[in-house]
Amino acid sequence: MNPLFDRLFGKHAGKDTPFLHLASGETLSHDRFLRMAARMAHVLSGAGLAPGDRLAAQVEKSPEALALYAACVQAGVVFLPLNTAYTRDELSYFAENSGARMVVGDPSRAGDLRPMVEGLGAVLMTLAADGSGTLTDAAQSQPEVYETVARAEDDLAAFLYTSGTTGRSKGAMLTQKNLLSNAGTLVEHWQFTSDDVLLHALPIFHTHGLFVASNVTLLAGGAMIFLPKFDLDQMIALMPRATTLMGVPTFYTRLLDDARFDKDLTQGMRLFISGSAPLLAETHVRFEERTGHRILERYGMTETNMNTSNPYEGERRAGTVGLPLPGVELKVCDPETGAEVPRGEVGQIEVRGDNVFKGYWQMPEKTAAELREDGFFITGDLGTQGEDGYVTIVGRNKDLIISGGYNIYPKEIELVLDDQPGVLETAVIGVPHPDFGETVVAVVVPEAGASPDETLMAAACAESLARFKHPRKFITVPELPRNTMGKVQKNILRDAYKDLFSA
Ligand code: MCA
Ligand code: AMP
Questions:
Q1: Of all helices (H) and strands (E), which one includes residue 415?
Q2: Which candidate, 277, 493, 485, places its Cα nearest to that of 381?
Q3: Are strands 197-200 and 244-247 parallel, antiparallel or unpaired?
Q4: What pTM did the predictor assign?
Q5: In a mutational test of the pocket of ligand 2, which residue from 170, 206, 317, 381 has the highest number of ligand atoms less than 8 Å from its CB?
Q6: Fewer beta carbons below 10 Å: N end or C end of the chain?
Q7: What is the pLDDT of residues 145-204, one digit of tens each?
Q8: Which residues pair with 333 in a beta bridge?
């Protein structure tokens, strides 16, 4: 038994039903996809990867990249997908921290990565956006059937790294049960069937594109129009062939900004789902006016998969993230005492259920700080729950910026900037942005008599941090606002600079 493999992948063996429709016009059947995965699973075993070993993959989106996920599940290897924007510094931390036995990277970066990967005693393989690379070369000669490695539902299936307010990223350990239970709940809740065709334009290195979109489609036995990334023209051209779309709010605002996106174009669609970042109530309303569809907003986290969702049938309420999903317990608590606050009052959201992860890899103190002994996970999100159960997220009890659906932890950027010549201290904040929802601004306090060079600060960020984390603006101030405890009051800064990027 390998519940995750059996339920998502194995059951499709031998089926010629369409699974991945590619931009090239080619379609891959479920069966062909599984045979591709089986060959890769042989490569992993052949390279000495045993069940429970970690494989880190920083690869462009492609059918082969998705097959690598399936291959890991089949071989019992823990899959660790990584954002393609990460720099070598970022990647080397993840590879080392996870103790990855294999790293799969883009062929164009192999020379850059090899010393680091080999220094860690791991194997380096490559996979390009077009599916070529040493991984596929090695897979070519392998058998198309692989004997699935037995796994229990509490065994680890994946690590996803998520940053923290302090210090470095933590590997969230997700079990087979976490992924499978959530996928099952979502298939039912959103009424996915084998007739569905999901327009898939999200990256597959995060929960949203990999576990929500792909697992749900696989479990339901449906198909995906599998696009390398969000491209407005492609989205518009292909929407008439789809039935569903999952996206971050930026997808929806970009679609609404195009006059071709209208009722006619969306008439074959049955469901639009939004998540990963707050969807403005105004976007929800504009969307309905334009298309007649009400976007279904849901709320989740890397550590918990999906927690709440607006209903499929029933009121999809703009500005809310809906109701706790079946099997998910949700409480709104006082952040200091942990006691539940009365209905309707603001508190910190805590959740418990089969969806909640097992803890952070080799970080017991961080696990203990966020995952209570009784199983409730402290999300760091501030919200309210109304008498009718609807949950509204009103803010964050964590220092986090969400730009176009990507999480950015200011501390990481502040640490880089604080090290630059002439910089006394910095505060990195998120301010409203018309396209990305929020964007990064660095507020810099120079040392006495110094004037830090913006180009140097930007170069330092480019050296070690992924592009999406780079400040889009640097602002120099004589000092940072602080409260009586000496804590920087970022709310004052956010307020002062809220209009920097107004449309
Ligand atoms: C690209 N850039 C970004 C972002 N994406 N900068 C800030 N934030 C971003 N999200 C950079 C590019 O490197 C480029 O840099 C410049 O911004 C403009 O790129 P553009 O072509 O406009 O971007 P794009 O390629 O169209 O991407 C925008 C995007 C994409 C479509 C919104 O970021 C995206 O697909 N986001 C989805 C993220 C996601 O899946 N999140 C789920 C996390 P330069 O200036 O050098 O040109 S999972 C999660 O959060 C939980 C569990 C949940 O609830 O789902
Ligand atoms: P991540 O750590 O990438 O899993 O991001 C999870 C965070 O994204 C949550 O803790 C929320 O702050 C935010 N998030 C996800 N979905 C929504 C949503 N629908 N509305 C508001 N915030 C959201």
A1: helix 410-418
A2: 277
A3: parallel
A4: 0.97
A5: 381
A6: C
A7: 999 999 999 999 999 999 766 667 999 999 999 999 999 999 999 999 999 999 999 999
A8: 340, 348
